């Protein structure tokens, strides 16, 4: 394995380049006109379609994948539906598929609150075909036009014997808009899987908005080391 300066392997660089190329190809095929979701985006008369993709890579040898995530959802005024997606954690023995919807319950000048309810089906040798109901909550706080907070929390509620309840703070981040297209920030994530103590995962983040979508990069501490994440978001507005 070729080891590059700074400790990154050629495999890590290759995967990042391939992922970026796929995103660019997807943008060229769809021809979506991207715009960042502004405060109060759910209150207008447009239908907005969101596509999100995320990938993670360990920064510790052997530099394995830690995350693959795809999601598509639409927003119509205050209603959010359908919301469908897929996630795995790079091991190949556990996958989740989810579908659901929800609504913006509050949309004010200084804060907004989205609430959804998902059905989750797991697959893979380590999944035990567990099924869950998943209440999903997102709170946004707008301290100033440039200084904001976003917190996402959800809980897995078991629907069968192989499922176990667990809680996830997916992100609780503070961001500052340095320019119209560049944001920096820091945040906290954490979760407890069945039989595993609570795991703390703080992170640093930076986001660049382009005509082809928003590219967000995380540098995150995880149990046993650290990881880097690329989070991509594209939104298309139509009537």
Task: Tell me briefly what this model is.
The chain is mainly β. The protein is 9% helix and 59% strand. Strands 1-2-3-4-5-6-7-8-9-11-12-13 form a 12-stranded antiparallel barrel.
How would you summarize the topology of this molecule?
Layout: H1 10-30, E1 47-58, E2 65-76, E3 79-88, E4 95-107, E5 111-123, E6 131-142, E7 147-158, E8 166-177, E9 182-192, E10 199-200, E11 203-210, E12 213-222, E13 225-238
Antiparallel strand pairs: 1-2, 1-13, 2-3, 3-4, 4-5, 5-6, 6-7, 7-8, 8-9, 9-10, 9-11, 11-12, 12-13
Which features does this protein show?
single chain, 239 residues, mainly beta, Porin, 9% helix, 59% strand, disordered N terminus
Overview of the structural elements:
With 239 residues, the protein is mostly beta strands. The chain has a single domain (10-238), classed as Beta Barrel (Porin). It contains one helix and 13 strands, in the order αβββββββββββββ. A twelve-stranded antiparallel β-barrel has the order 1-2-3-4-5-6-7-8-9-11-12-13. The longest helix is centred in the first third of the chain and has 21 residues, at 10-30. The radius of gyration is 18 Å and the shape is globular. 17% of the residues are buried. Mean pLDDT is 87; it is low at 1-8 and 16-43.
């Amino acid at each position: 394995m070729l080891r590059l300066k700074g400790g990154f392997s050629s495999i890590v660089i290759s995967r990042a380049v391939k992922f970026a190329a796929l995103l660019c190809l997807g943008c060229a095929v769809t021809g979506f006109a991207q715009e960042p979701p502004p405060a109060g985006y759910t209150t207008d008369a447009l239908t907005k379609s969101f596509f999100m993709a995320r990938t993670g890579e360990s920064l510790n040898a052997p530099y394995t994948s830690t995350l693959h995530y795809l999601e598509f959802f639409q927003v119509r005024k205050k209603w959010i539906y359908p919301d469908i997606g897929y996630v795995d954690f790079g091991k190949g023995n556990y996958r989740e598929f989810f579908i659901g919807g929800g609504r913006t319950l509050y949309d004010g000048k200084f804060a907004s609150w989205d609430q959804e309810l998902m059905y989750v089906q797991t697959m893979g040798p380590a999944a035990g075909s567990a099924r869950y109901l998943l209440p999903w909550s997102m709170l946004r706080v707008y301290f100033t036009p440039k200084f904001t907070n976003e917190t996402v929390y959800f809980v897995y509620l078991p629907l069968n014997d192989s499922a176990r309840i667990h809680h996830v703070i997916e992100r609780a981040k503070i961001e500052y808009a340095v320019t119209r297209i560049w944001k920096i920030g820091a945040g906290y994530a954490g979760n407890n899987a069945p039989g595993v103590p609570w795991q703390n995962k703080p992170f640093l983040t930076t986001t660049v908005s382009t005509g082809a979508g928003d590219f967000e990069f995380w540098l995150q501490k995880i149990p046993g080391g650290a990881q880097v994440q690329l989070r991509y978001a594209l939104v298309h507005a139509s009537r």
